[in-house]
Amino acid sequence: MIIRNTGLVAKLGRVLVLQVALISVTVAAGIYVTNTIVQDSLVNEALENEAAHFWDLYQKDSTQALPDTANMLGYLSKDGEMDSVPEQFHGYEEGFAGRVQFDGSEPILYVTEFNQARLYLIFASENVSDLAFFFGILPLSIALVFIYGLSFLTYRLSHRAISPIVQLADYLERFPFEKSSHDSSNQDLQKLRTLANAEVDVMIDAIDNFTERLDTYIERERIFTRDASHELRTPIAVFKGSLDLLQRQSERPEEDLRALARMRRTVEDMEGLIQTLLLLARGEELQQPGVRVRLNDLIPDLIDQVAPLATDRGIKLVLVESAELWVQAPDRVVQILLINLLRNGISYTPEGQVQVEIQQKAVTVKDTGIGMTSTELSQAFEPFYRSERGRSNSPGHGLGLSIVRRLVHQFQWKISVHSNVGEGTEVTINFA
Q1: How far is Cα 292 from Cα 326, in angstroms, rounded to an integer?
Q2: Which residues pair with 76 in a beta bridge?
Q3: How far apart are CA 412 and CA 205, in angstroms?
Q4: From edge to edge, which strands make up the β-sheet containing 315-321?
Q5: 3-class SS of residue 16
Q6: Exposed e or buried b for every residue in 14-32, given b needs 16+ CB within 10 A?
Q7: What is the mean pLDDT of the chain?
């Protein structure tokens, strides 16, 4: 099982990067402060102590030798005589003068006076840098490397600790919920148990129980759809046969024949609805790749099917073919999709027309009906929803657009709806 860069792992990595960045900034600030302390504090203190020590000895012996070491060098002037003092130091007052130019280097100069005598002490700057490196930068750099190593070790241990959770998330993402057999997935789940800790093991048990219940539910649903298909189709066939028998009786009045025709269309509508619901319930048929369907050939037949319903309501059906359109899907699915759009448009159009336009990558069904408010539009795709304004004049069950949306999502198409009250509704299915 492959551990992907999930959100949890990514967050852990970001925490590590942030931690390293904060440590780096802190250590860099520490190095800077240490360097400053070494130069501004330790060196200054060393110069002050050396000067104080020299004056103590000078009081006892005015011929006391001046400091002359690898790090420090001293010059002395008496009674204003500056012959023994380098010219670069002339003009500096008592106190710390900072870095000065001397013999191609920049030593630190400290000037102090005692009894008409003035002492000039210089400290080699390169030695100051060495002190700052060995007593400041080097220890902190070693500490930084140690902290980096410790942080990386912590990251690895944390990554190892959460890896079962990451693998569990990966398993859930790949879990075949649409299938009835999960044997291979359950094998992966059992392998994961060997890596899991107690907390993750509890989650695995819960998922395992869930998959077993899911298998039971899917099998029960399959049995139901099979039995429902038979039980629902039988009475529909009886109704259709009885209506055919009644319609063949020529002595019936014209009014009765029209009523029988409406009953037959209602039965056919119910038959189509049952087939659609069973198709959606089974799901397997929707997974089939299907064939290429030419909508320019299919849509005219669908318009002929709904023509009697439109004629009864005095509605004109218009077909506009702006392009040739092929769709890769089972033809039954495309029929259900478009027939529901047509019936919906006819149902909510008291007068006027319903236009179907075949475009290069889409089909648009536009009516001149009652339209929808923003509230009605937000609920139009909900199962069994019918607006109060159209409930009295439009037959149906409130499932048309709900079925359309489900099919569109199933095949990853796109649907858009635009509607204005009193002007009509326009529904576009983009098959790209």
Answers
A1: 6
A2: 119
A3: 34
A4: 315-321, 352-358, 362-367, 424-430, 414-420
A5: helix
A6: eebeebbeebeeebeebbe
A7: 78
Residue 251: C-alpha distances to residues 255, 259, 397 (Å):
12, 14, 34
CATH 3.30.70.2740 fits 288-430, yes or no: no
C-alpha span between 254 and 257 (Å, rounded): 5
Up-side HSE of residue 430: CA atoms within 13 Å toward CB? 5
Residue with tokens 């189509």: 272
Distance CA 70, CA 64 (A): 19
CA distance 150 to 144: 10
Asked if 286 and 279 count as a contact pair (C-beta separation under 8 A), the reply is yes
The rounded distance, in Å, linking the Cα atoms of 248 and 141 is 102
Pairing state of beta strands 326-329 and 424-430? unpaired
Beta carbons of 431 and 323 less than 8 angstroms apart: no
Q: Which of 117-126, 297-306, 308-317, 353-362 has the lowest mean pLDDT?
A: 117-126
**Residue ranges of the domains in the chain?**
7-143, 176-184+198-273, 288-430
Tokens of 411: 């095949």
What does the pLDDT look like over 167-216, one tens digit per residue?
Answer: 666 666 666 555 544 555 555 556 555 555 555 666 767 777 777 787 78
Tokens of 155: 């990251």
Residue 293 vs residues 330, 331, 427: alpha-carbon distances, Å: 8, 6, 20
Angle between helices 295-312 and 254-282 (to 10 degrees): 140
The pair of structure tokens assigned to 167 is: 């693998």
What's the predicted TM-score (pTM) here?
0.48
Q: Are strands 108-114 and 95-99 parallel, antiparallel or unpaired?
A: antiparallel
| Separation CA 218–CA 222 (nearest Å) | 6
Phi/psi region, residue 95 (left: phi>0; alpha: psi -120 to 50; beta: rest), is: left
Closest CA to 46 of 72, 77, 17: 72
